[in-house]
Amino acid sequence: ISSLPFDQDPTECAKGIVREKLKWHNRTMNRRRDEAIRRGEAVENELVYHSDCSGMEFEQLVKLALQAKGYQVRSTPVTGDQGVDLLADKHGVTIAVQCKRSSSPLGNKAIQEVTAGRIHYQVDEAWVVSDADYTAGARSLASTNSVKLVNFFTL
To answer: What is the C-alpha separation between 82 and 13, in angstroms, rounded?
Structure first.
């Protein structure tokens, strides 16, 4: 942390710190798994974030992160989900969540999908969770439609 320049954007600093924590976690879990295999022990399939993870893996990671924060989370059908991947409940508030793993900034499509999904599922809030940033147009549309844009690394 001390090597970060003082003029760097605080959000980018936070993302960098979280990425380093995830890398450390992944290395630790891989090392523990390898040691267990060497000892002949059974190893559960553990999900870890990596930049090449599939959309389904990313969705499961988001689900686990929300559950760790106390949400009751259920998945929607893989097909015909109406733009919603997860439904998260906490304190009587239900949230429609669209999960998007991307290597480039997300545009309007995810916001349009989760907005329609919020109406379809008749829930209180709509979120898009991504490991990428969002375009200015997406931010504007999200603001207009009261969609919360969430970065996975700060979830």
So the answer is: 35
CA 117 – CA 4 distance, rounded (Å): 40
pTM of this structure: 0.70
- Which strand ranges, in their side-by-side order, compose the sheet holding 147-151? 72-75, 86-90, 93-100, 125-130, 147-151
AA letter at 148:
K
DSSP class of residue 97 equals E
Q: State the distance between the two ends of the chain, measured CA to CA, in whole angstroms.
A: 20
**Over the stretch 72-115, which tens digit does the pLDDT of each residue have?**
999 998 777 788 999 999 999 999 999 999 989 999 999 999 99
Q: Which two tokens stand for residue 127?
A: 């979120």
Q: What is the DSSP letter of 79?
A: S
The Cα 84–Cα 118 span in angstroms is: 8
